[in-house]
Amino acid sequence: SLIGRLMFELPEEMGLIAVAVRQTQGKGRGGNVWLSPVGCALCTLHLSIPLHSNLGQRIPFIQHLVSLAVVEAVRSIPGYEDIELRVKWPNDIYYSDLMKLGGVLVNSTLIETTFHILIGFGFNVNNSNPTICINDLIAKFNREEGTELKPLSADCLIARTVTVLERLIEVFQEKGPNGVLPQYYKYWVHSGKQVQLRSEDGPVAWIVGIDDYGYLQVHQEGEAVESVHPDGNSFDMLRNLIVPK
């Protein structure tokens, strides 16, 4: 891709971002096709992360920081704090725990002592199909609470997401995971949730959090806490299943 070539040629201090109104060949995790209808915020962002830094040693955390940045981009606006936008491990943006309306895909390349990160993120701002969009959530909130919050635009939320992400990365580099996890847990959908591992007949476990490397931690009664890697497992929200891919 053009942005993939440019990221190695630009000065390290120069940012690089590509914004699309619509994608025709969007990609999701595991080679899945990513639907990109008009009305979505669609963006690819390049970051340079030093290998010998808090985040450079924990690259899987980047997808969590981006998901959190999307949610914060909306819920940090005065009046919009209670819009039911949340994060789902490892890389999805959800309406409550009911419907997906966005996601994040991260690719990394290590050259000498620098990670070159390409972050693709997309979330539905203003199109009620195929599921629901952020402005639907705002309209629903207005009806229920008697407020008059204005709809948001894709370009505004992309700008806010990138700004919030920059702040989250700064905090992470200074304080490590503990600097951002309290905010992440505030918005995630998994607190206290019970899941089954590997199959519908598999052992029951409880989600307890995220470890220092961004992996989901689950606890079975009588067993030690276990970390679940996102690249080897899929989280089926509808059936509360964590299954191998």
Automatic annotation (TrEMBL):
One annotated Gene Ontology cellular component of this protein: cytoplasm
Coiled-coil stretches: none
Pfam family, one: BPL_C
Residue intervals of the BPL/LPL catalytic domain: 1-173
Classification via CDD domains: BPL
InterPro entries linked to this entry: aa-tRNA-synth_II/BPL/LPL (IPR045864), Biotin_CoA_COase_ligase (IPR004408), BPL_C (IPR003142), BPL_LPL_catalytic (IPR004143)
Protein keywords: Ligase
Top-rank lineage group of the source organism: Eukaryota
GO MF, any single term: biotin--[biotin carboxyl-carrier protein] ligase activity
Family per similarity comment: Belongs to the biotin--protein ligase family.
Official protein name in the record: BPL1 ligase
Species annotation: Sinosuthora webbiana
Encoding gene, per UniProt annotation: Hlcs_1
